[in-house]
């Protein structure tokens, strides 16, 4: 359950971070007057004096289609993860929720596993797509000019990849546990029927 919670928290932090991509300044001099960072909701500029100036993206229509799709996928991933956390907690054997309905409890845990895997896939697609756009623009600007600032991968992308991996791993583990629990319930049900058949 720890990996599930870590993946869920990681997705939230990743989505709200402003470091999805950072400015890269290649050239003979490594000293730059400012560093630009851009996320899904805002962009920040850090000056050499230490001053940080952030600007929130006000209009949704001003952003590119890629940005809007990435936002939507990350928000969907967070919503699915929140539902998955509640479902998996209700389906855990250590909880007293639905103790009188074991078959339903196993199905709820299985649903939580599916939600975790789906959330992880949504986040993985969003971060990989965004990262691919950064890489393509980086190489295109490299051929066009050597003096303009270029964007590189930010910390949020690496956190997003880690969080999506944890969600996928947690979902697969929960899936295996729910299948094992379902098999146990079936075995407990099938046993008496076989023994009673002997008396018949």
TrEMBL record:
Membrane-traversing stretches: 69-87, 108-130, 156-176
Keyword Membrane recorded: yes
Membrane protein topology class: Multi-pass membrane protein
InterPro entries on file: Claudin, Claudin_CS, PMP22/EMP/MP20/Claudin
Pfam families reported in the protein's UniProt record: PMP22_Claudin (PF00822)
Gene3D superfamilies recorded: 1.20.140.150
Keywords: Cell junction, Cell membrane, Membrane, Tight junction, Transmembrane, Transmembrane helix
GO (cellular component) term, any one: plasma membrane
Record localization: Cell junction, Tight junction; Cell membrane
Family affiliation: Belongs to the claudin family.
Claim: Zinc is one of the keywords in the record: no
Protein's organism: Paramormyrops kingsleyae
PROSITE patterns in the cross-refs: CLAUDIN
Function: Claudins function as major constituents of the tight junction complexes that regulate the permeability of epithelia.
GO molecular function annotations of the record: structural molecule activity
Predominant cellular place of this UniProt entry's protein: other
Protein name: Claudin
């Amino acid at each position: 359950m720890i990996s599930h919670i870590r993946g869920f928290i990681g997705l939230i932090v990743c989505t709200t971070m402003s470091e999805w991509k950072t400015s890269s300044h290649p050239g003979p001099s490594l000293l730059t007057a400012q560093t630009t960072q851009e996320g899904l909701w805002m962009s920040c500029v850090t000056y050499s004096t230490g001053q940080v100036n952030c600007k929130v993206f006000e209009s949704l229509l001003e952003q590119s289609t890629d940005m809007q799709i990435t936002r939507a996928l990350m928000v969907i991933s967070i919503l699915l993860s929140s539902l998955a956390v509640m479902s998996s907690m209700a389906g855990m054997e250590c909880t007293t929720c639905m103790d009188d309905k074991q078959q339903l409890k196993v199905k709820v845990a299985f649903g939580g596993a599916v939600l975790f895997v789906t959330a992880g896939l949504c986040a993985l697609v969003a971060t990989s797509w965004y990262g691919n756009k950064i890489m393509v623009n980086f190489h295109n600007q490299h051929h066009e000019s050597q003096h303009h600032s270029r964007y590189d991968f930010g910390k949020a992308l690496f956190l997003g990849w880690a969080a999506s991996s944890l969600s996928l791993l947690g979902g697969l583990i929960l899936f295996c546990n729910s299948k094992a629990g379902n098999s146990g319930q079936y075995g407990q049900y099938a046993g008496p029927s076989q023994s009673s058949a002997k008396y018949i």
